[in-house]
Structure formats: structure tokens, C-alpha cells
Amino acid sequence: MERWARIEELFHAVLSRPKEERAAYLLEACPDEESIRQEVEQLLASDEGSAGFLDGSPYSGLLPLDVKPGDVVAEGRYRIVGRVGSGGMGDVYKALDTRLNRFVALKVCRERFTKRFEGEARAVAALNHPHICTLYDVGPNYLVLEFLDGKPWRGPLRPETAVQHAIQITDALHAAHRQGIIHRDIKPENLLLTASGIKIVDFGIAKRTDPVGGEPTGSDTITTEHQIPGTLRYLGPEQLEGRPASERTDIYAFGLVLYEVIAGTPAFQATSSITLMASILKDDPPPISEVQPRVSPALARVIHKCMAKDPETRWQTAADLRDELRWIAQQGNLMAPPAAASRKPVRTAVFAAGLLLLTVALVGFFRDRVDLTTPVVMLMDTSAPSGVYDDETRHQSGTNADDLSNGLSGLPAVFQKETLSVEWNREDQILKRSPALILIHRSAFVHALAFEFSPDPLVKTPQADPATDEELYRRLTRIGRDKMESLLGYLANSNGAMHFVVYSRDWSQQSQQRWLAGVTRRYPQLTGRITPFELIRVEGKASFRVPRNMERIQQLVAERVARR
Q: What are the DSSP calls for 286-304, one per residue?
């Protein structure tokens, strides 16, 4: 599987270069892998067999619209497993790629693609981002895409969970926009929540912009002439007015979806298409703070700026929006404090002002005598369903870190969460926050790897570990544990004041001591700074929602924070 992934990666990389540079680039990229070079050269030869990208595909025949499970299509390349969805353009099937022995999503469209779709297909195929679904192949009336086991991004979700997902989405949109690709159909169904995070899917009506001026190219889309591409509820006012879509159109649609995910209700309510269009053009959505009062003013401002009627007053780039969301998440500025009623607002304000002045004076006086900094506690875990301990948390697409955050919120510390995944690589960002204590799930990376690289995606279930090959699972366990231990060693070496709590279920004292001896022998800087923690079973259930477990972890964290 790794071999074919490398072949595919090289093929797209070579294909994106001018023809005269391809041979030299391929030789430089894999000088000692002759067999891989030959495979890539064969794919290139097939692609160059005709002038067009679609005609160049070795599987360029039209696919029938009435395929059924068991059918083998595209000259034997794909075996249909079953239909997984339908849309305005056609049907989506799960299929087995018989050549690469992997599952793919096969989208069979009702209309034959035009030659004008070639530019968009090339551009989307070249996108390479962990939160964008990969396009593998294109035929005259079908798309072959990465098969994803996920569900649409819907709410209501906690603001902190929604913002972590939103950061992934905006980072992916930034990657697409940087390559000149406008999605034009951002909606919950095209934002899939998977074990490794959010994936943007369905670039079927994506638009390529002019690489020089940044403006959309002509009407070269795969949609019917005079048809507005996209889903009405998430269309921007400029699209309804017949103006071209831009990067800021994607930002507008994203704002509508984020509003809906947090509020649990669409930004625009309408009983018909006509009234919905009128609302999009003329009305402003109700302030999200009225629908969800606990959303902070900072987050509300970000969301409503996305939904501005005038594209010029929205966030101008997805990168700016992503950075603002990251800042809000890092500051913990997601939930508004509960409002406190007062019968004497003027007197209260005067008292508060006096208290503020007194506090400033005391801070100046004791600046060198006491440390007034609130300690940061980092909660790290994966969202892979097989690693989420509580059934209710798993059902809400949460993590063990969410349960910890809820249970520890009364302690005198700032709690921040990190959702780990296969692609996670944020060690330096963690260090910048200077956490006093890190709570990490011992098998977080193991579960992320097992869910991502299951030998048979058909057996993936939220309740069970997806890996069925015992030898493969043992290898993934070694890799995942090594990644976690290496992370702890790196953080401990970079910050001498940091402590760690590593938790796991059914982790005996003997196993804890054996593991502790091994990890401190490997990373001596962890000696005396790491505490193993077992979640015990009460009536068969072991999670942080079990009161006894929460009481124990509360006491442990309180002691660690107090020692600081």
C-alpha cells in the first residue's frame, strides 16, 4: 500500500511539471528506485497518449448510470461495492480499485464532462492537504475519489470543538485558494468528520481562478448553462446576483455552516426557495449570541464577519480567518461568561473600577514577590471513535479531553485541548503555550493510526478497534507508542518545568512501573516528571465520566498545579 501511495504521489508531482522537466525531476526524486520510476513512467505514458487530460486516462469510457453491487467498470479497474449517496450531479458508489487493492469513492455524473472541465480537474488533482479529499482519477462522466468513512459536520457542537474543526477547514480552504481553486459548494455534507479530522469533499463544481489576477475564469464549469452552481441555502449574495464567485464566497458559506454547527439551527430560516433567496439578499441572520448565549463576543464577531453581504467586508483570505480562530482558541476565548444580574449597576460599576485600580496597584507592588500567572494545563487525545472511552462523548463526536475539560474546569488553571491525529505535528506550538502540566492518552496515536490504516475499511465501527490484522496492529501500536514517548521526551527536554500525566484503561501497577522504567531510561529528562494514571472500571465502565475516576484525576491535577 505504501508503494502505490508513493507511485501516485510521484505521478501527480511529475504531471504538474512541464514535459521537458519531467524525466529529470523523476530521476532526482527516486534515483535508487528503478521499479517505482518504471511504474510512474507507464502512468505518464498512458496520460500522454492523447492531448486531453480526460482522453489521456486509460479508463476513459463512459460509465452507466445504473451500476449495481458486483459490477466491474472502467475496463475492469473498479468493482462496485454499493451506493453510498446521491446528489444533484449523480450517484456516489463505494468501489474497490482492483489494481491498487483499495476502496475508492466513484462519483458517476448524469452529464458528460466537457473539455472545459480539464483545467479544474488538473488543479483539484494536484491539491495535497490532510483535510482535503484526494481526487485520484477522472473519466468522461465520473470522478474517482478517496473513500472516507465519516459523517457530515453538523451541530450543535461545543464552541471549542467546533472551532478546532473550523481551523482545519480554513487551513484546507487556504491551501485550495492558494492553488487557485474555489470550492463553491461548502456545506455540512461536503465537510466530513472522520477519525483524522475534517475532510473537505466534492470539488465537482470547483472553479479555477486566473493565476495572475485571482479572478474566476470563464464559464467553463461542468454545470448546466445558466444554472447557479452550489446549494441554495449556502449561496452568497453575489452568486444570486449573477456575479462571479471568489475565495470570499467560500468564506461566506463557511461562516453560515459554522453558525449552524454552533447554534444548532441554520442562519436563514425560510419556508420556500423564494423567501430563502430574499433573506440571503436582504436580511442579516439573528446574532449568534441570541441563539447560543454562551458564545463569546470574539467568536461571534468572527462568524458574523464571514457572513457579511459585501464580499469586501468579509475576511479577505481563509488564512486570516484561520489565524483569528487559532488566536481565539489559544486564548480560551470561546465561551461568554454567564451574565450576572444586578439591582445596582452603577454602584457595581464604581466598585469594579475601584477594585481594578487596587488590583493594578497590588500587581505593581508584588510584581517581584509573587507569580500571578495562571498555569496552563494541556489535554491531548484523539477523536478516533475506538479511543473515546465514553459512549455519550463518542456519540457527540467528542474526545476524552472534552470530558477532562468539563470535569477539571473548577480548578485554578487554564485548560486547552489538542486533538491528535496521524498528521499531527504541533510540538513547537505546544511549547509556545508553556503548559505546566500535560495530560495525554497513552494510546492516542495508536488509535489514530489504527483507524487510519485499517487493512479493511469495511470493518470500521465506532465501538471497536478497526485493525483486524494482529501483526499490523502490533506494528501500529509500536509506532504510536514511540511517537507519544518521543513527543514527551522532546517537550521535557525543551521545557524543564513541564510535568506529564499519561492515562490509560486497565493499566496495572506492574505494567505502569515497567513502562515508566523504560521511558525514563530512554528519556532521562522525564525522570520524576511523569505520572501514569489508570482509569478503573466501575460497574464495567471506565471513563472520565465515572465519578471515582474524575475525583482521582481532579486530585492529581490539583496537586500538580499547586506544586508549580
A: PPHHHHSTTB-HHHHHHHH
Least reliable range by pLDDT among 368-382, 389-403, 536-550: 368-382
pTM of the complete model beyond 0.85: no
Residue 214 or residue 555, greater confidence:
555
Place of cell 508513493: 6
Residue partners of 192: CB distance under 8 A and separation at least 6: 133, 148, 150, 151, 152, 153, 198, 199, 201
**pLDDT at 267 exceeding the cut of 60:** yes
Q: Bridge partners of 499?
A: 437
Is the confidence at residue 524, as pLDDT, over 50?
yes
| Crossing angle (nearest 10°) for helices 2-15 and 19-29 | 150
C-alpha cell read off for 402: 472534552
Q: How many CB atoms lie within 10 A of CB 265?
A: 16
Strand order, beta sheet including 197-200: 151-152, 191-194, 197-200
Q: Measured between alpha carbons, how far is 431 from 146 in angstroms, rounded to an integer?
A: 34
102-109 vs 142-146, strand pairing mode:
antiparallel
Taking the C-alpha atoms of residue 393 and residue 425, their distance in angstroms, rounded to an integer, is: 25
Residue 397 has pLDDT above 80, yes or no: no
State the catalytic residue, choosing from 185, 202, 250, 465: 185
Residue 55 annotated as catalytic? no
SS3 199: strand
